[in-house]
Design a protein that fits this description.
171 residues, alpha+beta, Double Stranded RNA Binding Domain, Ribosomal Protein S5, domain 2
């Protein structure tokens, strides 16, 4: 199932930035080597809004700044309920596969590096995650975004199915 992400505008949100990965790229030319950097950045407000972006430049700080600007253009809204997610979700992006599960209060964020940055930026405090397949940070972050984008709140499920909220929660 392909996710339709709930994109939002991040004009006046108070966002925190986290650098997930910095990659140094070397291009060999006739005059010598040319170095450039790419930075994968995640931004979030800690209250269900999160975005990711990629910046490329000749200097690290400039690449990070470009990544932050790109991330602010790709914000999504994640349903966070009592510090966790409403239901289990599996998603794929490239060769990366991720599984996210809700957890009881006090569990913490059980996730790998790339996924952890996304989940903490979104404000999720209790979750169980497993990254399967590729460990490439770019694809893991994208797969995490697909999984978070496919999450739906209980109220939305009840409206879509034309049943009561009680029926959704009791199975």
């Amino acid at each position: 199932m392909k996710a339709t992400l709930n994109r939002i505008k991040g004009g006046d949100l108070e966002l925190t930035e986290k650098v997930v990965a910095i990659n140094r790229v070397v291009k060999t030319t006739k005059g010598g080597r040319e170095f450039s950097f790419s930075a994968l950045v995640v931004v979030g407000n800690g209250n269900g809004v999160v975005g990711h972006g990629l910046g490329k430049a000749k200097e690290v700080q400039e690449a990070i700044t470009k990544g932050i600007d790109d991330a602010k253009k790709n914000l999504i809204k994640v349903p966070v309920m009592n510090g966790t997610i409403p239901h289990e979700q599996f998603a794929k992006e490239g060769a990366a596969k991720v599984l996210v599960k809700p957890a009881a209060h006090g569990t913490g964020v059980i996730a790998g590096g790339s996924m952890r940055a996304v989940l903490e930026a979104a404000g999720i405090t209790d979750i169980l995650c497993k990254s399967l397949g590729s460990a490439n940070p770019h694809n893991v972050v994208k797969a995490t975004f697909v999984a978070l984008g496919m999450l739906r709140e209980h109220i939305q499920v009840a409206k879509d199915r034309n049943i009561t909220l009680k029926k959704v929660l009791n199975g």
